[in-house]
Known about the structure:
Elements: E1 16-20, H1 24-36, E2 40-44, H2 47-56, E3 62-66, H3 74-84, E4 90-94, H4 101-108, E5 112-115, H5 120-131
Amino acid sequence: METNLNNNNPNQLKKTILITEDQESNFLLLEVLLGIWGVNTIRACNAQEAVDICNENNKIDLVLMDIRLPDFSGLEATRLIKKAHPDLPIIAQTAYAITGDREKALDAGCNEYITKPIRREKLFELLERFLG
């Protein structure tokens, strides 16, 4: 599937994505990639912060949720967020992919699952699917 998101069409998406990521370098990479396409980003450094931001901000269009976070699991945060916001798309992301992780993420309420390092093409395919 060819994506319509490309460098010839900057600022195409006027959406807000919450990036739940405890590693600064991973957040900055995602912020740059998403900024190319006009996406506004908000950062949560841990699971509780992600839950709080989603509960306080009704303008979040999508959540990129790291699975391993310092306070509690991104999967548990997903469950809490989905209770209050069942239609909010959440994409799980992890650098520590092991067999069964995708299924656990989907069972927790994530809409999709992506592994790190994140491939730009896959990321934009998912953005188009959930936000396009």
